[in-house]
Amino acid sequence: MRLPNVLIAIFLIVMLSFFPTGYSADEQNFTTGSSSSPWLKKVIKNYPHINRRRPHPPAHLHPHPPLQRPHMRPLAGCRSNPWICRERNRRPNAQMRCCANKCIDVSSNVNHCGSCGVRCPFSWLCCHGICVDVNISPYNCGECGNKCPLGIYCDYGMCGYSEPEPEPEPDPDPEPEPEPEPEPEPDPEPEPEPEPEPEPEPEPEPEPLPPWRPHPRPRLRPHRRPRPRSRFPFPPKLLRPWPHYPPKGDKLPANATNPSS
C-alpha cells in the first residue's frame, strides 16, 4: 500500500514542475492600476517602469548603433582598482590588501596572514599578521591580545589551566577594639607631717687621761753561747793512720791527723 502512494506523489511533483508560473488575473489587475487605491494609481502613472520586467532603467539610456560594439564593463573586484581596499578601510588597525580579487585584512585572515596566500595551520589564528598557536601562546591565549599574567602558562587556550588552585586569601584582620579609657587615679592621700626629731643629747665630756708614769726599762740578759752538738749520736771515730802503710822513719805525715782534709 505504501509503494503506490509514493509513486503517485512523485508523479504529481513532476507534473507540477512543467506548468509555467504566472500571476493570476487579480494580481495583474492590481499591478495595472485597476485597483480602487488612488495612491497606487498615482504611483503607476508617475513611474511607468515599475511594471516592466526590469523595473530600473539601464545605465546607458541612449541606444547603441546596430554595428557598434557596446561599452565594456569593468572587471568586478579590486584587481583593476586596488586602491579601493585602502579607501574603504574604516578600521585603523586593519591592513587591507587585494588578495584573490577581494579586499582582505591580512592582519587577521587565516588564509592570507601577513601577505596574500600565507595560510595558517589548523587551529591557529592570525594575530597582527603572524600565525600564532593560541593554545599555548602566553601573549595570545585563546584569542589575539589575551595576555596571561607573569609566571602563568597558557594550556589549551586558558591561562593557568594546569596550575594549582591559588590559596584562598586570608581574612583581613579584624579591626582592633578601642582600648578602654583609663580610670582616673584617685587623689593621693596627704602624707602625714613628719614628727619633729628629738634634740640630740649632749655628748659627755671626756675623762682626763691619767698622769704619765715612766715604765722601768727591761733588763737585757746576755746571750748564751750554743753548745757544740755532735753531728751523729755516736762517739767520734778514732783517727786512722794515713797512709795505711807505715811511713819511713819516725815522722808522721802532716795530714795524718786529718784524713778528711
What report would you give on this structure?
The chain is low in regular secondary structure and 261 residues long. Helices cover 15% and strands 7% of the residues. The chain has 4 helices and 6 strands. The strands form 3 sheets. A two-stranded antiparallel ribbon has the order 1-2. The chain has a two-stranded antiparallel sheet with strand order 3-4. It is elongated and about 190 Å long. Residues 21-36 have low confidence and may be disordered.
What is the percent of helical residues? 10-25%
Q: How would you spell out the order of helices and strands?
A: HHHHEEEEEE
Strand content: 5-15%
Distance between the termini: 177 Å
Q: How many β-strand stretches?
A: 6
Mean pLDDT reading: 72
The best one-word shape is elongated
Would you tell me the structural class of the helices and strands?
little secondary structure
Largest sheet: 2 strands, antiparallel
Q: What is the topology, as strand order, of the major beta sheet?
A: 1-2
